[in-house]
Amino acid sequence: MTWSLKALAINQYRSGPMDVCVYDGVDYCSEYGLKMGEYYLGLFGMDTEKEWIVYGVIYTLAMYVVFMFLSYLSLEYIRYEAPENVDVSEKTIEDEAYTMLETPKTKSGTSAVDEYIVEMDTREKNFTPVTVAFQDLHYFVPDPKNPKEQLELLKGINGFAVPGSITALMGSSGAGKTTLMDVIAGRKTGGKIMGKILLNGYEANDLAIRRCTGYCEQMDVHSEAATIREALTFSSFLRQDASIPDAKKYDSVNECIELLGLEDIADQIIRGSSVEQMKRLTIGVELAAQPSVANSGRTIICTIHQPSSEVFYLFDSLLLLKRGGETVFYGNLGKNCRNLVDYFESIPGVAPLPKGYNPATWMLECIGAGVSSAANQIDFVDNFNKSSYRQVLESEMAKEGVTVPSPSLPEMVFARKRAATSATQMKFVVTRFFQMYWRTPTYNLTRMVLAIFLALLFGIVFVDAEYASYSGLNSGVGMVYMASLFLSMTAFQSVLPLTSSERASFYRERASQTYNAFWYFVGSTLAELPYCFVLGALFTVVFYPMVGFTDVGVAFIFWLATSLSVLMQVYMGQMFSYAMPSEEVAAIIGLLFNAIFMTFMGFSPPAYAIPSAYTWLYKISPLRFPVSILVALIFSDCDDLPTWDEATQSYTNGGSKLGCQPMADAPVTVGHITIKGYTEEYFGMKHDTITQYFFVIIGYI
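RESULT FIELD:
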């Protein structure tokens, strides 16, 4: 940067209209023995020979080659993504195994067990069993090829699930399984939905669906700094009704831990958990909310692709879809899926189930959705619509408590949008943020170390610096400007990854109306306060005395302004993270805004030189206010300004503070001026505005 800047400056000032003797009415050659360009380069201690332009180009090219070679070496020999090979003993595998079911096998490979013995949980449940039904569901989205047309992804889907049952939702890729689940769970925000979703026979609104159902998505998204127990407790307290005693909520957390086999890892931080552990946690978070929807009396609907026979036999009912969102089968599977097998074998043209073959795989291959498709022209949708299973479905759905309200079953009505009180929401959300920050040293320690490093870097450069000359004052103002901006820009960039990584879990929790977004905002802002002020203190303690500043009272205000500057940039980073679609876009847009604000904050170009058309940018630039406070504290503080004596050609009767000192070696275009006068007149950074600017910064924050 130094070589490039020097080459550019010499190229500009030693050529064209600036490499002259007379400029703006001043004869520099006769007055100083230098041309105008050489004179101003000399004021800043720069070389003036034109050969430095060539040296700068050569040095830049050399650095280009060096960095390219270092990049090659890094790509060749360094790879951080590759995990180390880990030897896992057989005992470790056995200890960590999570076995849901173990059954004896026949020689043919199919399950020979006729009954599954399951230990019943007799603890009191904090939910009302609910029958879920969906009637004539259609879902339309705009056609990407022709926005005026619509694509129908679901075509009149009917079905229901009763308490204590497990319903499988299966089909080929593109059949609409996930789409149907999203529609039932109220997760679709776009498109057009037609049809009814009913709970206990009453048509459900969006609030009822979100409050009394749990939805486990394909991606396991959690706040990774929490422990597994804390995640379950968070869900239990914020999603169960406020009227339920805390003791019962803790009981539900312990129940989920036992039910999912999480006892050994309950107090383990989520970050670094295996895929299998994360999936169990995802299920547990929803169960801890005690949704009103197999052995525990809940109603379960789940999508599954191609399960093994043992897993498939666990399901009570099946809703099978084909590509295009149409129903191929709905009904009770029967013992060992006998009903399903008999139905498909009764359709002309369908090959019978081979002995020992997985009925789930066979069924999918029959309709052309398996790994090896048995392609044929059978219209399975038409066969189902003409079958007895369709008639049974319609008769079952017409019963009370399914699509018709039943006097014996309650309507799911909620007086509040969210289960927990505002106080409970605030307590748990804010606590989680403070725990997350404490458990994320990669974020906080990194920025603390960077603050100390930046303070040392600028401090070493300006040790024993003098600020009473023209070049010294400009360098001093530039030092404060660069140091504070580097510190705040580092804070801006550092917060983006953390905020973006937490955003996904926020969206999942908000979809279930877990808490008000306001408390999330409160938590994210309060958690930053102690770290930003500690960061500002570390920077000030190192930087302030190293560069020659000694006033302790001013140091306190310097720390306060620095900390608020960092805090403002952190909050700006959070804002862009929440507003932009990705971390990368937030970084680019934030960099653009900061670049504009830096340009028009009054240092380069100085405030007096900003064109009138852009003064509005100067006035609104948030970066201007903390830098103005910092510069004014040091260079604009003077209670007793000296007076210029024409007779002696010197200042007299001035105060002892730095701002009261006359500026030495001032250019002829500047004339006689004090440090305070130059700082306020040229940079617009006035000591009288410090208090006002503090309020402006707080307003921006």
